[in-house]
Structure formats: C-alpha cells, structure tokens
Design goal:
Layout: H1 25-40, H2 51-60, H3 75-79, H4 87-92, H5 105-120, H6 124-130, H7 132-139, H8 144-152, H9 155-165, H10 181-184, E1 204-206, H11 209-214, H12 217-229, E2 234-236, H13 245-250, H14 253-272
Parallel strand pairs: 1-2
Protein name: Fe-S oxidoreductase
Organism: mine drainage metagenome
C-alpha cells in the first residue's frame, strides 16, 4: 500500500555511476520523463531554483499540457539550471526514497550532466573555470595576484572575461591573495591538550578549500585564531586538492573521483590521529 511521503527521513541511495545502465541514454530519457511527470503533478518545488519553472513552462506551453508534449531535446534546458544544491531532495519533495516512487531529482540531474559530459564534453571556458586548484595556484603567485585583481576590477577586464569565459560583467568575482591561508598557517601545529567533547576528540584539522585558501585566507586565519583561543589544538590540511564540486556540476565524474582519491587518504590519516 502506498504511503504519504515526507513522513520519515529520506534515504539517499548511492549514485550507480559505475554501472552500464547509468550511461544508457534511452534509459536516462525514460527516467527523466518519469520524474518530470511526477514533478509536474506536484510542483511543491517551483520556488527553489530555475530548473523547476523551466520544466513547468515547457509543459504548460506544450501542445498536450503534459510531459509527453515536451521534446526530449528540451530536457537539457531543465538539467542545465540545476546546480545540485539538494534543497528539493532534503526539504520539499514528498516522493524521495523510501517512498515507492523513488524520486531523487538532484541525482537524476547529475546523471544527465554526466552522460552529456561523456558524450559531448564541455567548452574550454567551463574546463578553465572549474579547474579551481590550477587557476587559484596561478592567480595567487606574487605580483600576478595584484595584476589579476586589477584586471578583474576594471571595466575592460570584465568585458574581456565576458567575451572569453562567459563571466557576466556584473557577476561577483573573487579576489586572489598571494599570502594564501596555507602560507599563513603552514607552521601551525596542533599543540596543547585536546579535550574530547561528545563523539569528537577535541582536535581540529582545517580543510580550507580552494576558495578560502586563495580568496578568503583571512577567514581561515580568523577561524584558526578562534579555535586556538578556545584551547582547541588546530592545524591545517596541507595536502588537500579541490573538493571536486565545480567538476561535479559539469558531470565530470572521473575528475571528481581523482580528487577524491587524493583527498581521502589525507583526511583519513588525520581522522585516525584523532582530528
């Protein structure tokens, strides 16, 4: 017997991206149609992001006013608006697993992005913008950082960014710092006596991320200072690479796996040390 959704915590099934069926375009289109039809009959998610208004406009402007009136080639218009925030899954959708309809909209969008990436790739500008580790490392070189920041702050520079990389002239762009968080805290050691609290061991290792390392190093510096002030032994994770989110949004799952395989051993070793 079917049960009303949202009566218990959602169950997130692993993304089966190593299975052949995951990459089958016919199966993907069939699943997109199934889920889009469920979304069409519910519409609780319409206010969350532009993926859902795009889907509902396509349906409402079709000849049948149903999902079967939408060209499958237009499904990509919905997919490109999803940035995998997961709010629909976590807060709105009443049909997520364990409901029998098994709707996981973000995972389905990621699957569609991955299939598109594998079949067609992405423009060079998307590859550049998503390579945050490389861009950050180059843009944070002394002198280079000042030049990059000056160009990004100029009207001519913003027009150039718009023409070459598709960055809108009014979009906020991060500043780059040559004194990165890792450079500022490279000598920081987790000194002192750790006091366990709850399930934690009372020690902290800061995973700065690309963005905070090169664009907001003061935030990391301040966090470190607060933790030290409160007697919490703290150190930086010095060998980290990109978390992979920019590549995930492109559907570049191989790059995400490569980042994961570099980060997890480092983080696991710190966890074993009690961080």
């Amino acid at each position: 017997m079917a049960r009303e959704g949202n009566l218990e915590a959602p169950t997130r099934h692993p993304l089966a991206w190593t299975e052949a069926n995951f990459w089958d375009e016919t199966r993907l289109e069939s699943e997109l149609e199934r889920v889009f039809n469920i979304c069409h009959g519910c519409r609780r998610c319409v206010s969350l992001c532009n993926a859902f208004p795009t889907l509902f406009d396509l349906i409402d402007n079709s000849s049948t006013l149903e999902i079967d009136g939408v060209a499958k080639t237009d499904y990509a218009k919905v997919v490109e608006h999803c940035y995998l925030c997961d709010l629909c899954y976590q807060t709105k959708c009443p049909y997520v697993p364990p409901h029998q309809w098994n709707v996981d909209f973000p995972h389905l969008m990621l699957r569609a992005k991955a299939v598109h990436f594998k079949r067609h790739g992405v423009p060079l500008k998307a590859k550049i913008l998503s390579s945050t580790t490389t861009v950050g490392r180059m843009a944070s070189i002394p002198v280079v950082a000042e030049v990059v920041n000056a160009v990004n702050a100029s009207g001519v520079g913003r027009k150039l960014l718009d023409k070459t990389l598709g960055v809108h002239p009014d979009a906020m762009v991060p500043a780059y710092h040559s004194r990165t968080a890792r450079k500022r805290l490279r000598h920081a050691k987790a000194e002192g006596t750790a006091t366990p609290a709850g399930r934690t061991h009372g020690k902290v290792a800061i995973f700065a991320t690309c963005y905070c390392d090169v664009s907001l190093p003061q935030v990391v510096d301040d966090l470190h200072a607060v933790l030290i002030h409160n007697g919490i032994p703290t150190r930086m994770v010095m060998q980290e690479v990109c978390c992979g989110m920019p590549k995930l949004e492109l559907g570049d799952l191989d790059s995400v796996r490569a980042y994961k395989e570099r980060n997890i051993p480092v983080l696991a070793a710190l966890a074993r040390e009690g961080f």
